[in-house]
Design a protein that fits this description.
- The protein is of the alpha/beta class and about 250 residues long.
- It has a single domain (about 10-240), classed as Rossmann fold (3-Layer(aba) Sandwich), CATH 3.40.50.
- It has seven helices and seven strands; from the N terminus they run E-H-E-H-E-H-E-H-E-H-E-H-H-E.
- The protein has helices spanning about 15-30, 40-50, 70-75, 105-125, 155-175, 200-205, 215-225; strands spanning about 10, 30-35, 60, 85-90, 135-140, 180-185, 235-240.
- Strands 3-2-1-4-5-6-7 form a seven-stranded parallel β-sheet, with helices on both faces.
- The radius of gyration is 17 Å and the shape is globular.
- Pfam families: adh_short_C2.
- This is 3-oxoacyl-[acyl-carrier protein] reductase.
- InterPro entries: KR_dom (IPR057326), NAD(P)-bd_dom_sf (IPR036291), SDR_fam (IPR002347).
- It comes from Chryseobacterium arachidis.
Length: about 250
């Protein structure tokens, strides 16, 4: 419990699923963790209590990652803590074929606002508070480089945009020794995509290891990239997918 001791992490969308796994693992490594949530208030409060029982500080704040004003307000609330590690995890998954006239265009637009514009806004608001040598880690998707079924074009495009931003921001912030990387999860066992779901057996056919990952697997990858062990890694895309993209 020392890899991230005395560090403070800010995680968007940290109350459930992959975000919860990230928050928990960062705390286990000794970091103080501030995280946002949208609707899972009780889960967020329970997670704060669990983290503080480890002897580190935690705070959960309700905020819509796609709302620049709310994100700016949350980051100001976190300013007294300082931010060493930023994890852009909040995201939406909205599908629809390009020729489907029944698509919910407002939902597709909201997806872009959360998955892309929200991340850009968060990074811009955090950077004035981040000391040199900080870490920025975004959670993307293997869908950024592959389209295994119809209808994921809009979602995949948002995650591909994040990968492009990652490479550019690594150049922008290199002089400050701030590393910027993106993790692309594959099939991870969450309530949104359970390992015993109706299509899980079919989807697993593309996974070399033959099973789903767990939120902890993404959390451990984040903790590594946030640590001094990854100090010379930046602008990199790390697939944590059990060999799905091999």
């Amino acid at each position: 419990m020392s890899k991230l001791k005395n560090k403070t992490a800010f995680v968007t969308g940290g109350s459930r699923g992959i975000g919860e796994g990230i928050v928990r693992q960062l705390a286990l490594e000794g970091a103080n963790v501030i995280f946002t949530y949208v609707s899972s208030r009780q889960k967020a409060e329970d997670l704060v209590a669990e983290i503080e029982a480890l002897g580190v500080k935690s705070m959960a704040i309700k905020a819509d990652a796609g709302n620049p004003e709310e994100i700016s307000s949350v980051i100001q609330q976190a300013s007294d803590w300082g931010i060493d590690i930023l994890v852009n995890n909040a995201g939406l998954f909205v599908t629809g074929e390009i020729d489907n006239k029944q698509n919910d265009l407002s939902a597709l637009q909201k997806q872009w606002e959360v998955n892309v514009h929200g991340v850009v806004s968060t990074v811009r608001n955090v950077l004035p508070l981040m000391k040199n040598g900080g870490r920025i880690i975004s959670i993307g998707s293997t869908g950024a480089t592959r389209s295994p079924y119809p209808g994921i074009g809009d979602y995949a495009a948002t995650k591909a945009a994040l990968a492009a931003y990652t490479r550019s921001w690594a150049r922008d912030l290199g002089s400050r020794n701030i590393t910027v990387n993106i993790i692309q999860p594959g099939l991870i066992n969450t309530d949104m995509n359970p390992s015993d779901g109706p299509f899980s057996a079919q989807m697993l056919q593309s996974v070399a290891l033959g099973h789903y990952g767990e939120p902890k697997d993404i959390g451990m990858a984040v903790a590594f990239l946030a640590s001094d062990e990854a100090r010379y890694i930046t602008g990199t895309t790390l697939n944590v997918d059990g060999g799905q993209t091999t």
